[in-house]
Specification:
mainly alpha; Arc Repressor Mutant, subunit A; two-stranded antiparallel ribbon; 6 helices; 64% helix; DNA-binding
């Protein structure tokens, strides 16, 4: 899977939320100042070329939709991050993540519950 630029990721975020949308829907999803239609069109073309987005044509209009699930995209990135920056060690990543992100006690307890739950699933 290829990488998306930050601008392309923004378009994908809107498409993931919308599930599918025409150019006007995508533009409406942006806060002001909104990007130019030509900018979004260029980004969409690149994302179609990278096979992240496809469209259905209705006359002169195109309804765009994502070809990649958000969870698939980000899990690939997280796994790449662990591989490239933490010597393929999930525990090194977890240590860095929990120490360097200023998580509250509540957030850490929630993470612990998630991890404990996953451990139980793996034991079955």
């Amino acid at each position: 899977m290829q990488q998306l630029t930050n601008a392309e990721e923004q378009v994908m975020e809107h498409l993931w939320k919308l599930e599918k949308g025409f150019m006007k829907d995508l533009l409406e999803a942006y806060p002001k100042p909104k990007p130019a239609t030509t900018t979004i069109a260029t980004l969409l073309k690149r994302m179609i070329d990278k096979q992240f987005v496809a469209y259905t044509e209705f006359g002169n209009s195109r309804e765009y939709y994502p070809l990649v699930k958000k969870t698939d995209y980000f899990s690939k990135h997280v796994n790449g991050l662990i591989s490239n920056f933490f010597n393929n060690s999930a525990s090194q990543f977890a240590s860095f993540f929990t120490k360097e992100t200023n998580l509250s006690q509540t957030e850490l307890e929630e993470l612990k519950k998630i991890i404990d739950s996953e451990i139980l699933k793996k034991k079955k």
